Recover the amino acids of this structure.
DNA sequence: CAGTGAATTGAAAGCGTTTACAATTTGATG
DNA sequence: CATCAAATTGTAAACGCTTTCAATTCACTG
């Protein structure tokens, strides 16, 4: 109604045929030029490019991928978006993908809580060439379907029990070990541990690291100090609340399986009248951006989230190029980042300072 | 190589023809059933559904959208992902989209810094049915291209100068006005303002609100107290650093155009030896999740980010359904959320407390 | 029981690419 | 100059779906 073009005809976007016509070639040749085929005359190539430029032509994604070409779209399955964790990883993914000229489709895993398989079906039947999964909980359901389709995917911060998947993770065991050891060396002997969702591989590894460090420092690990958690702030809060009111004497330090639950622990400690770090030391895991926003700044184990995202995206791209390549596993190093949330414990009546007092390990300078 | 199927043949995913064959109908009928066409016999419908179920059939997205069907994919153009701002909005978008059974393709705007138009071309030629833009800076370039294609889109937290776009935003002017007024009523008379990137509409509005409140409270606004900012933490830090060292007497309060730059202001204030809120009050804008993580908890103007995302997604969906619908504009209310970062100013020698002392306005209870 | 319009289904034409396959050119060789 | 392989381009067949168009079937009406 409101159009008043000279040519009339609703302006259709340019198709490959338009380019072919404009350059006096066949659409096959145009396609070849555009997909970088080798055997095209230079003159032809430039004629095509000129027409493309002039018409503002961009290939239709659906058509291209229907015809078997590459869609250059990668799927990303995330559990949520509200904390920096996923955002930071995604940043890395985006970096790698944008240099490979790929786009990202976001899937949130809460979406079809029941029928995961259907969901995976939907993803793999889409325009997506591959899938990145950030710390998925239901690996078994997903992975079976994915592999059955021979669909390229990479797990981020989660292991595949069968070991058949591409995986990018960090040294969870080692990181937890170092953090716990750090607390021991500060003189803490009652160190509570807030576990993550234990079906997630990283959570189990961190627990292992915690126990190992305790053992090495000659501190018996106590069931009462190992608390259930779920990687959420609320969970960290409740666990800490519980341990402070029910365990006597209370722990002098809390090692939370991730930063988010460490934030919850901080809340609970303060609510309990404890000041951080004077009355209780707190350590987190991940080093999400918020760690240096909280007060006091949180000492934590840095997981190179952005790099992990980047590495995973690159791995996926390689798998897409070469389907035969066997699944790799990349483990990136974690580092303890010492900030302001830890200090040696106050001595209670009758307590002696533990023999470990030097600091050690691969400790990064304060940030 | 490793397959051992009875039928052999690399297992192709089921197509519509397979379903047709399995149900003894034509693919046209299957298509009709699947797209909810009205005039299909109940018996037919159930035969189709059965076959679909049995084969685990999911329609191919590329094929469907090539053929003119709906792809149910929405594009989202974001400036970045590292702060909670975008994440929270996206959460809302995701909520609305998932109830409409749509997926999300993520585009980051830094990607093609030079040729935006090409970028828009690429987006609109893709599988995307519509586009959501979060606070885009280069509206003019984008919008022209978008409108020329008659491509449905909605702006979030950014206005279109020409007023031809669907827009979802918050009461920026009003929010800034209330926050400033709140500071005035606490007794502050030297209130610094850290501006946002002024090409973003919201930033300009917030500045307007600040000035208006000052005027109403009879406080002359001073150029020296209006600082350049860019909505980034670093910018807030530098602006505050600057104003504290170069303006005498220094401001007793800082109103930052968004939370992120308020965090920067907090850093700078502390670095300058000021304690918050005793020596200086600070107010932010947005109410990102981090606000209650920082110490002291930040008093801020809450922008209903999640709701904004949701509203925008819904608006876009409507526009897609009915292209003729004129562009709407939704403005959601902001509220001042009082936390711990503000207090009446300490009186300097010779100063009198300002006449405004009651609190007022639409103030939400502390959180 | 013929007639009529609605309900129901099928056949086949695209949608815009990619990609065998085939045809034509070109260049070098003998 | 004939010959052969390589280089270059075109033709046309998919890809898997939606959607006209037409055909068939139904349910009534008169």
């Amino acid at each position: 109604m409101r159009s008043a073009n000279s040519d009339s005809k609703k302006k259709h976007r340019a198709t490959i045929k338009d380019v072919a016509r404009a350059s006096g070639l066949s659409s096959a040749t145009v396609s070849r030029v555009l997909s970088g085929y080798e055997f095209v005359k230079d003159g032809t190539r430039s004629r095509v490019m000129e027409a493309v430029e002039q018409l503002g032509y961009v290939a239709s994604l659906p058509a291209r991928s229907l015809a078997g070409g590459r869609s250059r779209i990668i799927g990303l399955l995330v559990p949520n978006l509200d904390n920096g964790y996923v955002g930071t990883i995604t940043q890395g993914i985006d970096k790698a993908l944008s240099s490979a000229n790929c786009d990202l489709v976001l899937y949130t895993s809460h979406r079809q809580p029941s029928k995961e398989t259907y969901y995976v079906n939907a993803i793999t039947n889409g325009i997506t060439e591959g899938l990145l999964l950030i710390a998925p909980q239901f690996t078994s359901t997903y992975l079976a379907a994915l592999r059955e389709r021979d669909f390229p995917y990479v797990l981020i911060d989660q292991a595949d029990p069968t070991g058949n998947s591409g995986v990018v993770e960090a040294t969870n065991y080692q990181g937890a070990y170092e953090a716990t050891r750090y607390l021991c060396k500060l003189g803490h002997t009652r160190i509570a541990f807030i576990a993550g969702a234990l079906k997630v591989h990283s959570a189990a590894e961190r627990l292992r690291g915690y126990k190992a460090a305790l053992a090495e420092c000659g501190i018996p690990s106590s069931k009462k100090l190992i608390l259930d958690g779920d990687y959420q702030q609320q969970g960290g809060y409740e666990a800490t609340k519980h341990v402070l009111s029910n365990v006597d004497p209370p722990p002098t330090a809390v090692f939370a399986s991730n930063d988010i639950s460490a934030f919850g622990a901080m809340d609970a400690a303060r609510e309990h009248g404890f000041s951080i770090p004077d009355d209780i030391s707190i350590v987190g895991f991940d080093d999400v951006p918020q760690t240096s926003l909280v007060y006091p700044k949180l000492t934590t184990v840095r997981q190179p989230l952005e790099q992990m995202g980047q590495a995973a995206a690159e791995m996926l791209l390689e798998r897409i190029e070469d389907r035969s390549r066997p699944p790799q596993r990349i483990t990136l190093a974690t580092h303890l980042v010492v900030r302001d949330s830890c200090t040696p414990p106050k001595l209670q009546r009758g307590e002696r300072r533990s023999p470990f007092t030097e600091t050690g390990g691969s400790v990064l300078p304060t940030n």
